[in-house]
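Worked example 2:
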Amino acid sequence: YQDHLELLKSSMRRPKYLGTRTRLPSGLKGRVGRNVLSEAKVTVSGTYQPEFDAAFLNDGFDRTSVNEWRWISNQATETWAEFRLAEPVTVTAFRLVTGFTRGGDRVGVVQDSVLQRRDGEHWIDIPATQLAGNEKSDIVRTFEPVRASQFRLLVTRAPDNLARIWEIQVFAAK
């Protein structure tokens, strides 16, 4: 029993035990398809501590009331989260839920970042997703359709050089 207690406690903190998935942002209803990142394999530049696992990035939950259910990057001036899909898909919208909850407010948001798509050997910015001086915790952007099987969120500025992210979603074109 004692050997398995910590694993059980850790598993119970995971969102999959607590209900429904994130709903489509109201501004995107009827305009986009599914969140393609829910099917993606995730790799990250690093993780601050093991309990802030990269698996939270695309698990379909954005429960911002629980700070433990998010990815926190390693401490660096440039961090990233990469998503690989089995097949290329055409996408047209992006959502980022970032920060942490303190006293009922969401603070510590990613300030500067951009969603990129892989094109052969190179990462190409999706310009409409670029954040500069951001102060919001829930960001939705639409853009002209692009097709790729790999996407990456590149974070270039965040408080304390730690990207704190509950959820990243990229939506298929309808």
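The radius of gyration is 16 Å. The chain is about 5% helix and 45% strand.
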